[in-house]
Amino acid sequence: MKTQYNEHEILIDELVHLLNGGNAHADLTRALDGLPSNLRGVKPDKLPYSIWQLVEHIRIAQWDMLEFCKDGSHESPNWPDDYWPKETSPTSDEAWNKSVRQINKDTDELMGLAKTGNLFEKIPHGDGQTILREILQAADHNAYHLAEIIMVRRLLDAWNN
């Protein structure tokens, strides 16, 4: 028997799919798969960021969007300084792994917010934002920077996909 979805369920499914990488771009796992650890902190000539800085920026920005959705007392970091790490390389493999784990955890939590079904309600402590807007913004932001990671990998001759 064919399952029938209503428009709201279809939208939720599409948002979850988008947060997981959508149809047209790589997700975080694919963008980082096989990256040699010695290239995490390399900044190719004339580019402003290393892959580490891009990963950390994704983590910080997505965390900020998620916390804004959840907590009226959340204070965002100062833009732009606190959204971009100064260090070009992670201090350790554990720092790298912790950042990647946090991105994945926060992505899962954003998917959970999508599944609550409260997509169109205004966030009480915001100025008109909705959960839908924040999820779309997070997915768009992540896709943009994941593409940059792939571009850096291509410039470093470290992309084979």
From TrEMBL:
Q: Which organism is this entry from?
A: Mucilaginibacter sabulilitoris
Q: Which InterPro entries match?
A: DinB-like, DinB/YfiT-like
SUPFAM superfamilies associated with the record: DinB/YfiT-like putative metalloenzymes
Q: Which domain of life is it from?
A: Bacteria
- Domain (DinB-like): residue spans on this chain: 25-149
User: What is the protein named?
Assistant: DinB family protein
| Lineage of producing organism | Bacteria, Pseudomonadati, Bacteroidota, Sphingobacteriia, Sphingobacteriales
